[in-house]
Amino acid sequence: MIKIVEYENKYKNQVIELILNIQNDEYGINLGIDEQPDLLNIEEEYIAKGGNFWIGIDVYDEVEKVIGTIALLKKEKNVGILKKFFVDSCYRGREFGVGSKLFDTLLTFSKMIYIKHIVLDTPAVAVRSHSFYRRVGFRLISRVELPIEYTFPDRDSLLFMLDIGK
Question: Which helix (H) or strand (E) element contains residue 113?
């Protein structure tokens, strides 16, 4: 059974393993944990600051396996940054709907806290992700179009923005 739940510290190691595996083994981005200290302090970096972090879990025989993640980093000016959106390759696609369920959870939460714009950065090599972002309404933007300033580990990144309120 697949379910979406809010982050709990008991999932920390599985979350880190999933994200680093996809970033480095699958996409060859070469990003270490030292460049992503937020993964070591998810509750402080996301939840305590007004955002949130969700995970997709596959539950089988009472064993919980982390199969996806997504986070919202709340910023000023009613802007949120979509972060750490990853789905295990075995669970991608419409058959499972993990990515859509994670994104719908983030979008519902964003509307509840009056987020008007969601921005994200994504590696240029993550072409399948770009297709998903466009399908759910994101548009490609340039750095000058960002409504806020934020830093990210630029690995030939593209920027996208979704307007969800005026």
Answer: none
